[in-house]
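Reading a protein record of the kind used here takes only a little practice. The integers have meaning only within a learned vocabulary of local backbone shapes. With that in mind, consider the following protein and its fold in token form:
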Amino acid sequence: MIVKFIFLLLGKMGKRWMVRMGFLICIALYVTLGLPNIHPPNRLLIIPRGYTRGQLKEQLKNEGCIRNSVTFLWATYLLKYQPQNRPGQYRLMGHMNNWQLVRMLRGGTQHPVTLTFATAANKASLVDQLVSGIGLQKETLWALLHDAKKLSAYGFTPENILTMFIPDSYEVYWTITAEQLLLKMYLAYQRFWNATRLNKAKKIGLSPTDVSILASIVQAETNDQQDAAMIAGVYINRLKRNMLLQSCPMVIYAQSAKQSGIRRVLEKDTYIDSPYNSYRKKGLPPGPIGLPTIAMIDAVLNYAPHDYLFFSAKEDFSGLHYFARNYAEHLKNANKYRKALNQLKIMR
């Protein structure tokens, strides 16, 4: 269209003026489209949804990404580029000219975003981590993770959906939708639960979801991998004997809706009516009490076989635990920890 207009214009002029005007037009086009305009090189640019040409020009100008914002704006008109049609994250390479830049943006050639998460205290914490680097609205993802019908298609519920998210680094596009993100996490979940891990879970008598739920409880007890394998063994022994798990972190989780920051579980706390109150409800809860790391999941799958039924934190606050076979022995260990808490005046 532009070329046709130029020829029509030149056709109405004399030969000399045609040469002069053609020369000037070529210079103008070269300045507008051909001159390098990116500065400095290798910058990441995020174009939000609904952005206009003017807003994009101002952003590039204010962030020091381009040398000449006017020629860039003209290039967007000449190449019929509308930013709102191609939001996303893009990499600006050094010495790019406006022609190359606008063609990349117009074509939607995005640079992927790396999503990384290792653990999360709860679903809200995970959602915050996931949406922090992409253009997905927090409310949209939150609603999807509470949509029982859509989650059931993947074999999960709003209570246990956290177990589908395997901590790792993932490459996604800035424009990824909530449904696309959920599918990506599900495919990663399937790859993680390979034949080896599935066979280990089967030998324990737990499903992959159950393993992750138990791993979240173990993770709340310790950060030490060797200790984690021992604690996992205690819980598995209790499950096999149909005993109450009596997990303090689970009680804290159950109480968190009423009171946060509990540092010490009291007897009155164990009377709360909740499926997460393992002092009153047998078996595993309906969902995890946090997002377990891969190391904690593997600690459960590779738990330490033993005949211990009790464990108590050591009084040196090292994060390690004493293990006992009977309640009398456990009570002695627990009293050491209680005395340490009392000395520090941690009464609640």
In short: The longest helix spans residues 15-34. Strands lie at 43-47, 88-92, 113-117, 168-172, 310-313, 321-324.
